[in-house]
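Sorry to interrupt, but I need a hand with the structure work. Please put the record directly below this note.
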Amino acid sequence: MDLLKPRTVPLSEETILWFEFLLKPSLLTKHLGKANPDPSPTDLITQFLAKAPEGQSQTTDVTPSDSEGSHKSEGLKYTKKQLALKVLALKVAAYMRWDLDKLEHTLSVSLQIQLLADLCSITAGKMVTLPSSLLQDPTLIGSDGSKHSFNFALTLYHRWVLRAQVLRAAVIKNMKSNPNHGPAVTDLTTFVLRDESSIAALEPITQLSIDFLNQVLMEPQAFRVLTYESFVPLDSNSDNTQQRFESAIAIKPCELRAQIHYDLCQYYLYVQKYELARHNVLLCKENYAQWQREEIGRTGLPPAYCTVNAEVLQGYLLACGVTGEPDGLLQRLHESILNHYSDIVMILKEDNLRKEIPMTQRKLLELNIEGYNAIGSTDGNPIEQKELELAVVALNIIRYVMDGENILSCNVAMQKYKNQQSKLIESLFQYADEQYEQFSMEERGLLKQYFYKIITLYSGEMGSTFEAFVQTYSKVVSLQELKDFRAQRTQPEMQLGGIALQNDWVIQETKNQRLEVGQLERQLISCSSANAVRKLLVKIAGTNPSKPLFTINPSWTIPYPLEQILIPLQRGFLQDFAYILIGKAKELTARKDYATAITLLTVLKNETQRPELAGNPLVAKLGKMVAWEGLLVQIQQVLDEWPRKPVDQAQLIRNCKQCLNAAIGTTSNDLMPHAKVLEHCAALLLNLNEWNALLITADKRFPGVELCSAITQAFLDIEKFKGTKKTNREAWEMILPMFLNPPGSRQRQLPPDSPLVLLIGKLREPLVISILLSLFTKLHNILRDEVNAEMNAEYMFLWPSNVNNTSIYNIKLVTEALNLLLNQALRYYPNNIPWLKLKGDVEFVANNFEAAMRYYVTALISGTEYCTVHLQRPLFDDFLIRRMVKCSTNLGCFVQAAVLCQFFDETDYGLAFKSISEKSASSSDAMDSYYSCIWDSTLLEYIVNWHYKKGEHKRRLQAVSFIGQLELNANNNEEIKREAAAVRKNRFLRSLAKQYMC
């Protein structure tokens, strides 16, 4: 065996291949139980069904050969492998609770039909052909079948028949109304429009499906749902395994009815039968509410069958004109107001029981009636209107009381209507007495307490009147209760004396030192002036604190090299002052207040240069470190405000060079700037094109600086070897190990503190970015090694053409670095055409076709100065156009692809004709709206002939009218033809921009 021959990378121990589930079905349960199983359940169904394509959607009469081994069960003409795979697919679907929402959005229509057909056949125990076997016929059920399971399968199929048509219509409508559709709609379009003929074939059987579902609603027997345990997978030792259909669980009738009425409502809304939709949505709401009361929350398990979405259901209610309950009190209140307050008392009395109308609405009603009476309306009897106002006020007071809140509002009302006090209290007694027995015990207690309070407050003014009220309305307060209450209230009140009667209480002013110190500390934390910090430190130091003052705020942090200098300093003012100013400067820098941060560090640097501190070596080191820290803040400001240049750029460059020189040739024990400062200095010099300053001896201690130096060498190679290809290996060999994927490693993303990621965040110069982009792109192409996945970037000639042992590198990390740098670059230079094209290539390789089209179109729009100049080469080439055609085709926009075929050096008629001939082309992307963008008469003639074959007379005439335009005459000179093509190119480009960019 050749030990040097490259071999495939061994799979991770956690990786499970699809056939392992076939060999060992017990793995399936363990896999599905994971939090985020990979492959997902729907991916598993796709794999299982793809490996057993001879399903119901193709034929039911295929007899397997002896070499494959057939399943001998009566009527099921599956091979053993087919049956095993189909049972596994059904187990996964059962695990998903037969959720059609998930299945419809992830499986193609053909796979959905195959899955449902397999379910019907296996539950029937014999081959069942869909859609011919639509009803539950006893003759369809074999000896291994189950009646209730077959009924479940047919019910699921008939629900799908209705839903598939609704989904298809929704996709087509979204595409027409919103050309710039999102990724979710695109995913649906990819398979819904491709399988449009399959869905259209369902229309003749739709009424049978509706009848079947209505029959299921009337069935007296319990509806049983197949579960994960209902399907028994085959193993290598078994040729014939009986399914455990008896393990199906019975669900509540209300759960079944809620789901079926929900699906029927969806379909009736689609076909615009609004009365039937309203009927079904109300029944769905009723059953859904009953199911929630009876079932949800009792077992703690997810629903077995129903997948009704409460929010969507509410939307269907609104769509059907159901804004609330049929007798909603709020709606009746609004109608009463429009009808001059008719039946308003009855509505408010009913609301005191049901509490549906918000109190804000009831209070507004009260104010409206008050204003209505105040302007002296002549529409009715003034006395009756005043009585109505008092009745509304009394009913509102009762509602306030029973809510247990806003008792103050009740008292305000009593004071407001003081002139009609007796009448208002009588109304309170009357309405409370009329509904007293309908109130709960708690509400009755609240009412009694409130009426006792009224009796207490107004007994002096209305002493005998209360007895008359109580005799008339005795349910709330009886006459005996009134006497007992008055007897209790006449007892002498508690006598207060001594200190409780004094009114000259004086609180002496006292000073609390701890409070004063706390106030000073808060001021120290919040202030941002060096002078204020100095004064506050002096004040707090006078209190003899037990700990250093810089420990007051744990958020004050400083770099470790500075901490090594500050901590050994003698405890005192300078230590606290320096630590706090550096910590505050770091906080201000994070908040992008660079000017204040630099001011604080400048004051600290001047403090270290005071004459009395000149002999302290630690203070001298501190001064240098603070100066470098100020330089770091200046660099961060320049990078953050890019492309605005610094005020004193020359001085800043000199400081950066001095800082880098301070680190050359020093040992780890010598004073030098810390790594973050050096890396920022190198990055700034790189961005400011100070190439020569970075040609320093590489220092392995600072990989960020070493990387900047390597990129500088790559640039110098471009300048030195113009017109020739010079391979640069320094940066290549430095960056390549960062993408290693050692055996057993689970690294899935680049470390955020890696030198490469940190450098990417600091790059601003376009040429530097382009060089690094070319490196990532070249490495990605080598590792991917697919012609159709090639990406193009500038300066790719700089890098080697191969990598030894590509299997040890992680291409996902390369893609992440490429995306990270591209996003950073386009943030500062959003119209850089090569970068936009490269970003489009990245999305294309990742199969994100809509995003790829967006970047390709953005590049063309930017290159034509927003369609103000003609689209010409080299802005686009055949490589770019071919990728745009592929994107349009995958997005279901076939006519777009046909129009793009004109952009090649020579029109690709074969590809254009194929795109136009797609079955869904004429209805998926507004075919006739692109005729004005076609300048190739051959293509237009083919479209005319196509419409003629399809019998689309109106569209054919429209295409003919474009062929007859004078500028498209074949006898025109080349100048006219070029101008006609250029105008139509820009027109088409604008339409793409509206779809993918707006």
About this structure: The longest strand covers residues 224-225. The beta strands are 224-225, 249-250. The two ends are 59 Å apart (CA to CA).
